[in-house]
Amino acid sequence: MNTPKRIAVISAGLGKPSSTRMLADRLALESADVLRERGVEVETSTHELRDIASDITNNMLTGFPSEKLEAVIADVTGADGLIVVSPVFSASYSGLFKSFFDVLDPASLAGMPVLIGATAGTARHSLVLDHALRPLFSYLRAIVLPTGVFAATDDWGEAGAGGQSALTDRIARAAGELAPLVEASERSSAPRDPFGFDSVLSPVGGFQPN
């Protein structure tokens, strides 16, 4: 029996409900649907950073993750694919979003397929995908998908003549790019050395307090 492929989802929205979480959920659902259409069994897990904000801060101060944060890190770095969505703060990703990736081992996302997404009030913030998110994950040596998905407030109610919105089209295109990379991935089935350089449970992650 084949081991299901795993997609981890990171949502950095601060509110409940959150348009950031809404976009993350739609990206995850569409990606899972595409994989199942290809005959691939898949599991998704979603992590809201607002729920572990204090754990992330404490990790940055002490260099050691809590059990709760450690579990999220293990799930994210051991997945076959990653979906990340951040709200736009001051023309970039949020501080909470960046802090989470600061505490990861810098090598832990190498080769990881990553679908990037962002949300904001107006479309003028859409360049955040290419000016902030893409460089971050390129630095971490992840495989960043060609299509990033940005959703402004107006995108949620917009639909064309056929009832299909531009946002829906972008989500479908991005999911179509992520699916074959997740299908080909062997990350979730590969044995991990808990004491190796690429350990997902490194006690200090990628952040060295001083």
Automatic annotation (TrEMBL):
Coiled-coil stretches: none
Domain of life: Bacteria
InterPro entries: CE1759_FMN_reduct, Flavoprotein-like_sf, FMN_Rdtase-like_dom, NAD(P)H-dep_FMN_reductase
EC number(s) on file: 1.5.1.-
One protein family per Pfam: FMN_red
Signal peptide extent: none
Keyword list, A-Z: Flavoprotein, FMN, Oxidoreductase
Annotated ranges, domain NADPH-dependent FMN reductase-like: 6-156
Residues covered by region (Disordered): 183-210
Keyword Flavoprotein: yes
Record's keyword annotation contains Flavoprotein: yes
Molecular function terms, GO-annotated: oxidoreductase activity
NCBIfam families membership: LLM_duo_CE1759
Name the UniProt record assigns to this protein: FMN reductase
